[in-house]
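Q: My labmate handed me this sequence with no annotations at all. I'd like to see what the chain might look like in three dimensions before we decide whether it's worth expressing. Could you predict it?
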Amino acid sequence: MKLLFDEHNHPVDSKKVDLADKRYQWRRCYKVVSLIHVNRSLDLFLTVAARVVPGNRHECPILYELVDGFVKAVDRGWMKILMVDRGLIDGANIGRLKRDHQVDTVVPLKKNMDAYQDMLGLTRLKDFAWEPYQPPYATRRDQTDRPKHPTLVKRELKRQQTLAKKKGLPPPQPLPQPQTLLGIARG
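A: Here is what I predict for the chain of 187 residues:
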C-alpha cells in the first residue's frame, strides 16, 4: 500500500494537494495492530495476536476482531483487562466485550476529553467517596509483586530494629506503603 506523505512525514490526501509539488512523496505504509499480554511484574511481554494492515485502515475494528479471535481460541476468563490507547475508544465494542466476554477495558484519559469531565462530575455526587484499595496480599514467597500483609511488615521492621540495636546502628525507618484510592459512587 502506498500513501502520499508531506515533508514532515505526515500522510496527506492525494486529492487535496498538487501532485507535481516535490514536497510530497509516495511511500509504502503499513500498520501493525497487536494484542500483547503483560504480566503484573512487567517482566514478560508476549504477543498473542497481530495483524499487518494497509496504512490507511483504522486500527479500532481490527483490534476488536483480534480480541474476539483470542477469546474464541482460549475461552472466556483468560483475558480480564484490555488496556487500549485513546485512539481505540469504541463504546459499542467496549460494552460488548464487557457483556459477552467479561473483559474490562482501561483507557488513559486526557484532561480535555469528555470522559475525563464525566469522571470529575461523578466525584461531585453526594454519595461519592474515595476509599483505599488494598490489593490481595502475597501468600507465597514467589509473589514479590504483591504487598506483604501489614502484620508481616510490622514484624520485619521490629526485627530489623532489634538487629540494628544489637550492632549499635541507627534503627531503620519504616518504608512508606504505596496507597491507591478508588473512587466509589454508591447507588
